[in-house]
Amino acid sequence: MKIADIFKQQPVVDRSQQGTTQRAAQEKAAQEQQTGATSSSDTVTISSRARSFAAVSRVLAEDESARSARVQELKEQVDAGSFEVESEKVAESIVAFANDV
What we know:
- With 101 residues, this protein is mainly α.
- It has one domain.
- It has helices at residues 3-6, 18-35, 48-80, 87-100.
């Protein structure tokens, strides 16, 4: 998976605490209406860019284990003398890269 493909996917939305936060806000608003008092509170908002960076970090972490296994496999093939270059795949990759640039 290319890193650029991650940004084409839907943005990552953390909904794990959304219901709890909304419920707490509703309860607080109801309490303020009953008492007639208002209070200020701090809030934290995570930008879409930060969520994108988090998604990229997760993908890279997952990809790292697969990558190291593939590197080990290739090393073993080179050491055994059984590694063969697939020239057609190399050419396709070069053309695809040139088209992306």
